[in-house]
Model the fold of this input.
Amino acid sequence: MEYIHVPVMLKEIIEYLQPREGQVFFDGTLGGGGYTTEIAKLVGERGKVLATDLDQLAIKNFESRIKNEKINNVILKNENFKNITQISEEVFGRDIRYDGIVLDLGLSSAQLQDRDRGFSFRFDAPVMMEFGGHTSPPAPLLARRGGAKTEDILNKWKENELEKIIREYGEEKFSRKIAQAIVLARKNKKIERTGELVEIIASAVPAVYKNNQKIHFATRTFQALRIATNDELGSLAEFLLQALELLKPGGRLAIVSFHSLEDRIVKNFFRTESKDCLCPPRVPLCQCNHQAGLKIITKKALEASAEEIKNNPRSRSAKLRVAERI
Done:
C-alpha cells in the first residue's frame, strides 16, 4: 500500500514552527512524510528531524524515499509518539531539547485504503484498527487488564462498556442502541468484518440518520473503536507533558487535530500550562507553585483555508494549535 498523503496545513505549520538551518525537530506522526520532508529541507545538513510512526508501512515507505532522494538528516523510528522522551534520549542523549515538535493526529490515506485493516467503513475488511497493524500490541484501554484489540472490544466487552466508548469517543447519540445491536449480533456470530459491523450499526439507527448526506452513519462508531483500540487520547495526554519538557525556550509545539476530543485535550493543556497559578479563586495565596511553561501563539484554533479544503478534503475538519516554550 503506497502512502498517498497530502500534508494538512503544511504552509501554516512551517510558518509557525519557523525551521532554520541547524535546528532539531521532532515529527511524531510521520505518515507520508509531508512535514518531515519540508522541515528537513529547511534545517539543512547541520539540522536533524527525528520522525516516528507506529505504522511500519509509513516507516518503510519513507526509508525508500530517504535512499532515493539522498535525504541524510532524518532519523526514523517505528514507535509511538507517547514515548518521545525515551526515543529522544536513545537517539540524541539526555540533554536533547527541540526547536520544534509537530503532530498530525489524522489517519493517512494509506491507512484508510488498506483492505487488510478496518479503519474505513467503505471496504469490507477485518475489524482491525491497530495503527501498528498485525504486529501492534494491545493498547491499555479504559484501565482494563492487558488491553484489547478491536475484535475483542466488539466481541468481549460488556454492553455498558461499548455504549460508554461509542458515546464518549464517538460522540454518537445512538450509542446505546448501537451497543445493544452489537451484543445481540455477536450472540449468533463473532463479528470479524467491517461489512458486518456496518450492517449492525445500520440496524440500530433510524432511516433519517442513515440518509444523512454530510456524515456516514457508521463514522462515529468507527472513530470510537479506533480511539479505544489505540488509546489515542491517553497517548496524546502523555505526549504533551513530555513535549513541554523537551522544548528549548522559544521552541514551538504544533498539533493538528481532527475531532473535538483531541482538540479539547490540546486546548486545555495549553491553557493550563500558560498560567502561573492553578489554585481555585477562593485561595488568597498561591499554594500550588505552578509556573507557566508555555505561551499560546494561536489564540483560537486555526482551520484550513477554503482553497486547501477544495484541493484536500481531508483538511476539512483539521484544527491547528501552536504554543511556545517560555
Remarks:
- DSSP finds 14 helices and eight strands in the chain.
- The two ends are 42 Å apart (CA to CA).
